[in-house]
Write a structure and sequence with these properties.
The protein is of the alpha+beta class. 14% of the residues lie in helices and 34% in strands. It has 2 helices and 4 strands, in the order ααββββ. A 4-stranded antiparallel sheet has the order 1-2-3-4. A hairpin with a 3-residue loop joins strand 2 and strand 3.
Length: 85
C-alpha cells in the first residue's frame, strides 16, 4: 500500500507556533494536521520543510486538556510513535 503524499509546511509557519496555543489555534495557523495517532490520547502531527515535525500529545476536552509539544527530526510521513519514548 503506498504511503500518502504529504506536503510539508513552511518553516516560516513553524516559527509562529507557540506552546501556549490550543489545538484549535494550531489548526487555524497550520491547517488540518497531517496525521493523527491514538484514541482518547492522540498525537496530532504537522510536518515542516526543514525535516522536522510537531507532534502534539493531546488528551481530554478543550477546557481541561493535557497537551505536550514534541519537536522531532522527521521526514514527512515517517513519524513512528516510538520516536517520542
Amino acid at each position: 500500500m503506498p504511503t500518502k503524499f504529504i506536503t510539508p509546511l513552511s518553516i516560516d509557519l513553524k516559527k509562529k507556533v507557540s506552546e501556549e496555543m490550543t489545538l484549535s489555534e494550531l489548526e487555524q495557523l497550520l491547517g488540518p494536521n497531517h496525521e493523527v495517532y491514538g484514541s482518547g490520547v492522540s498525537y496530532f502531527l504537522w510536518y515542516f520543510d526543514d525535516t522536522t515535525c510537531l507532534a502534539l500529545f493531546y488528551t481530554g476536552s478543550q477546557h481541561d486538556a493535557e497537551k505536550k509539544f514534541f519537536w522531532l527530526p522527521c521526514e514527512a510521513g515517517k513519524f513512528k510513535i516510538n520516536m517520542i519514548k
